[in-house]
Amino acid sequence: MKIDVIIPVYKPGKELLGLLDRLQVQTVPVQKIILMNTEEKYFEQLVYGQRFSEKYPKVEVHHLSKREFDHGGTRRRGVKYSDGEIFIFLTQDAMPVDEYLVEKLTANLRGKVAAAYGRQLAGKQSNELEKLSREFNYPPVSRIKSLEDLPELGIKTFFCSDVCAAYRRGIYEELGGFVRHTIFNEDMIYASGAVRAGYQISYEAEAKVLHAHNYTNRQQLHRNFDLGVSQAEHPEVFGDVKSESEGKKLLQAAWQHFKRKKQLYRFPGFLVQCCFKYAGYLLGKHYRLLPKKAVLALTDNREYWRQNKD
Fold first, then answer.
1. pTM score
2. Is residue 70 a contact partner of residue 41, using CB atoms and an 8 Å limit?
């Protein structure tokens, strides 16, 4: 079965080369690695003086401008460059833990399973709050989710992450692919459509990548503003399923986590971070009530609003 990997790239560093090295030694080989690079000059700075094409013969690079980048649209373009029966999306900072990533990620892509996503682990440099978040969102037990799980899982039924996810082309084309223009959440929007159409989403806990960010409270505000915007713009996905309940579960999990580790002194800082997240989320959900200047000050993706304006 042909498997391609598609990676959106922006201002790449040596971590991208490390990712490509890991992809070349997988137990299930990939046919092609497609890099959707934003701004050619940054990519040229990385590979200057290297025999890049000789070292990475499976890699093809497609450049686009920053103005052209879109979370959904850019990935749609990447899929068009692929002829794989399965295509995998990774981000440039998602590092496979071992050589079994492709094998484990694609193991259950059959029957009614439309897509699968892997487990994201915090790295050595991650702070305690980031480690907690990763443990909460990416538990050690795999699960296949369908519409029947909606009463139990709520919004998590549709959870999927293109940091590390695999898709079956036949179902992807049947469902119309990723939304063409979105500020965020192209993966969950697609997953929701797949689940509502009778398909399933598989969480593969054994398909592991290192991926974490120590975001500041301000960065959390911006990120969650865009998250709120994406939910406001797609009521067909998020309108009848509330996300707030997941926040309450995370608070409870955090209390137990810090209590177990005898680190309750960290809980107030976690609460402050949650306040920034929730404030960004609420502002994003109601962005239509805000002046344009406020939206541009709150967003983490100004190019999206310039595209909207045009």
1. 0.93
2. no
pLDDT tens digit string along 125-152? 888 888 888 999 999 999 999 999 999 9
DSSP string, the chain: --EEEEEEEES--HHHHHHHHHHTT-SS--SEEEEEEESHHHHHHHHTTS-HHHH-TTEEEEEE-TTT--TTHHHHHHHHT---SEEEEE-TT-EESSTTHHHHHHTT-STTEEEEEEEEE--TT--HHHHHHHHHHS-SS-EEE-GGGHHHHGGGGG---TTEEEEEHHHHHHHT-S-SS-SS-HHHHHHHHHHHTT-EEEEEEEEEEE------HHHHHHHHHHHHHHHHT-HHHHTTS-SHHHHHHHHHHHHHHHHHTT-GGGHHHHHHHHHHHHHHHHHHHTGGGS-HHHHHHH-S-HHHHHHHH-
- Residue found under tokens 């460059």: 81
pLDDT per position as a tens digit, 168-222:
999 999 999 999 999 989 999 999 999 999 999 999 999 999 998 888 999 999 9
Place of tokens 């997240």: 277
**pLDDT beneath 50, residues of the chain:** 309-310
Question: What is the predicted pLDDT for the residue at 231?
Answer: 92
